[in-house]
Structures are given as C-alpha cells and as structure tokens.
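User: I'm new to structure prediction. If I give you an amino acid sequence, what do you actually give back? Let's try with this one:
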Amino acid sequence: MTPKLYSFWRSSAAFRVRITLNLKGMDYQIIPVHLGRNGGDQLGEEYRKKNPNRLVPIMEFGEKSIHQSLAIIEYLEEIQSEPPLLPTIAIDRAWVRAIAMDIASDIHPINNLRVLRYLIKKLGISSEAKDEWYGHWIKLGLESVEKQLSLDPRVGRFAYGDQPGLIDVCLVPQLFNALSAKVDVKPYPTLMRIFHECMTLPAFIDASWEKQMDAEGLNPVAPPQE
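Assistant: Good question. You get back a string of structure tokens that encode the predicted 3D arrangement of the chain. For your 226 residues, that looks like this:
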C-alpha cells in the first residue's frame, strides 16, 4: 500500500518529509491539507481525529500513522537506510541531529503559522510587529547555524560531507521561509552555498513549493551565488 503524506505546499515540516521521500526514491501519495482555507482544514474534526495536534504533516502507512516531521524522517531512515541521511560515526550523528533540531525545534516553531495568527488575532499586534518578530527569530537562528557550519571541517559540498543529509533536509525549507519573508541572506554565505547545491538536485526541486499539486505560488527567488 502506498503511504499517504498529509501535506501543505508551503509547510516547512511537510517539505522536509517530501525531500526525504524523494532522496530515498520512495513512492508516496500527497493528501493536501489547506492551512488557510476556511480557517484551516487542519482544524476540522476529520483531520483532528487523525492528528490531535492539528498540524501537518502526518504520514499514514496502512492503518498506522506517524506525526512530527523528524519522527517520520527517522522512521524512513530506519526502514530504508540508503541513501543514508545520518553519518555512520555516533558523535557525528549527534552533531547532525543537533543542528537539524536547531532548525526544526528552535527556529521554525516560533514562526509557525499558528503562532503568527495568535500574535495578530489574539494579542492584537500589528502586521509590522509580526514581521519584526518573524525576522528577529529567523535571523537569530540562522546566525547560529551559519557559525556552526562555517567553522566545522565536516562540512563539504553539503552540510555534512558530499551527500545531502538530515541538516540539508531541514535547512532548505527554512531558507525558503527566509527568502519568502525578504530576510537578507547575505550574512549566511555557507548556508546559501549549501542551499544552491541542494537546489540542483531533483529530490529538492520536486519537493519544492511550486511543484506541489496544491501549489498556489512559485518558489521564492534566491540571490545568485557570488
């Protein structure tokens, strides 16, 4: 049975899973969940039964399902180890996971759609203040990741060595968000070099915003490499 991925075209978390599935050459079916229409499909009772968190993605494997993008990715890594997303050396695996979590656990959740909606609808902050919030946290997070990757000898063509892995899977969707929000990415030359490397690969291109069946816009434009 073909696994089902409940996805939204601009969801960073779903984007991570789409990249992973593509890298591993695994078949899957996209089930679109519109996060904006009528307040959000994810808030409906039918979807809430599938995931009480009311977030995407969920991935269904027959009668079983997994939520949380990193848990899904780790499961896919366990059932199909090639090509690997994690290093063979234990300390390097921990390093890769830590930076992936810097992105997926520290940067992304603060700027999640439901957080931004709460700031505006419940706390009454202005659109300008919301944008300031968004930019502050994404810049703070990307500065940290840039510093870590720019100084570490394990970085190669990609974030770890010369094959795409877990850090890249998390980094590209986050940079899509930054570019879409018009964040200045010039202070992150290492991250953008890796981004451009990733976006030459079909696995990343085919997982991107504009390639999704529910897409409502194009990919953000990245500045050319210097």
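You can read the tokens as a compact description of the fold. Here is one thing that stands out. The two ends are 46 Å apart (CA to CA).
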